[in-house]
Amino acid sequence: MINRKCILSVCLCLVMFMLAGCVQMRELTEEEQDIVAEYSAGIVLQHAENYKKRLEKQETPAAPESSQPPQATAAPENTPEPATAEGSGEEPSLTQVSLDDLYQVSGMETKYTSFKSCDKYSNQIAAHEGEWLYIVNFRVTNTTKKPLKVDLSERRIKYLLNVDGSEYQAHPSFLDNGGMDFLKTKIPPGASEKAVVVFRVPEKAKNPGSVTVTVRDEGKCETEIRLK
Q1: In terms of pLDDT, which residue wins out, 80 or 199?
Q2: 113-151, pLDDT tens digit by residue?
Q3: Which of the residue ranges 72-76, 146-150, 173-177 has the most confident prediction, judged by mean pLDDT?
Q4: Do residues 171 and 128 make contact, with C-beta atoms less than 8 angstroms apart?
Q5: % of the chain with per-residue pLDDT over 90
Q6: Is the sign of the CA dihedral 45, 49, 55, 56 positive or negative?
Q7: Among candidates 222, 220, 202, which has minimal Cα distance to 212?
Q8: Which pTM does this prediction carry?
Q9: Considering only CA atoms, which of 133, 144, 140 is closest in space to residue 184?
Q10: For 101, how many CA atoms within 13 A lie in the half-sphere containing its CB?
Q11: Exposure pattern of 167-205 as b/e (b: 16+ CB <10 Å)?
Q12: Sign of the CA dihedral 218, 223, 224, 225?
C-alpha cells in the first residue's frame, strides 16, 4: 500500500515551497510549474507498490497477426537438359579417312580389291550349318626399298559388315599372316601381299541388295567401303 504519511509530507512541503516562492520570488513560468508537478508525481509514484508491480508485469504487446495468407514461393521449373551422345546410346560420328591414313603404317599402301560370298573359303575357313561367308580381300604393298615389318595385331581395329541394314563383326581368319584384322608380317621391298577379313553371317544374307564394310580405328576415324 501507499505510505500515506510520506505522501502527505511531500505534498505539504511542495505547497509551502510554492507559497513561499510566491512571496519572496517571482512567479513560476508555466514550464517551471510543469516540472514541479512532474517531480511531485514521480516522488509519489516511487512509493506506490501497485505501480511498481504494474511496471514489472507489463509485457510488450504481441504484433498483430496478418490476416492475409502467406504467399507461396513458386518452385523453379525443372527443365530437362538435352541428352548427350553417351546418354542417348548413339555413337559420335567419326572422321572419314583413307585406309592409309587410318592404318598409319609408314611405307605401307593398302587397297580393297574384291569380296567373295561363299560357304567355304579354304580348308581352315568354312561356313557352319545355317551360315554364310563373306571374304573381303585387301592388298598391302611395301613402297620402300627395304623390308617392311607390319604388326596390326595390337591395334584392335574393327571391321563391321553391313548387309541390308544388319551389322556383323569380323571373325579371326587363322591364316599365316593373321588376316587384315590381325596382320603381322614382313613384306620385302616393293612387294605386295594379300590379306583378308572373314565375316560369318546367317545363310539368308547370301543374296544382299547392298553390302558395305566399315574399317574403324575406335574413337579416332573410320573408312567405309562399298563392296562390289
Answers
A1: 199
A2: 999 999 999 888 999 999 999 999 999 999 999 999 999
A3: 146-150
A4: no
A5: 50
A6: positive
A7: 222
A8: 0.59
A9: 140
A10: 8
A11: ebebeebebebbbbbbbebebeeeeebebbbbbbbeeeb
A12: negative
**Can you give the three-state secondary structure of the chain, one letter per residue?**
CCCHHHHHHHHHHHHHHHHHHHHHCCCCCHHHHHHHHHHHHHHHHHCCHHHHHHHHHCCCCCCCCCCCCCCCCCCCCCCCCCCCHHHHCCCCCCEECCHHHHHCCCCEEEEEEEEEEECECCCCCECCCCEEEEEEEEEEEECCCCCEEEECCCCCCEEEEEECCEEEEEECCCCCCCCHHHCEEEECCCCEEEEEEEEEEEHHHHCCCCEEEEEEECCCEEEEEECC
* Cell 569380323 sits on residue: 170
| CA distances (Å), origin 193, targets 24, 125, 134, 176 | 143, 19, 20, 12
- Interatomic CA distance for residues 166 and 224, integer angstroms: 15
**Span 97-109, average pLDDT:** 96
Q: Are 183 and 151 in contact (CB under 8 A)?
A: yes
Q: Are 184 and 131 in contact (CB under 8 A)?
A: no
The number of residues in the chain equals 228
What are 83's three cell numbers?
541428352
Higher pLDDT, 67 or 82: 67
Plot region of 15 (φ>0 → left; ψ -120 to 50 → alpha; else → beta): alpha
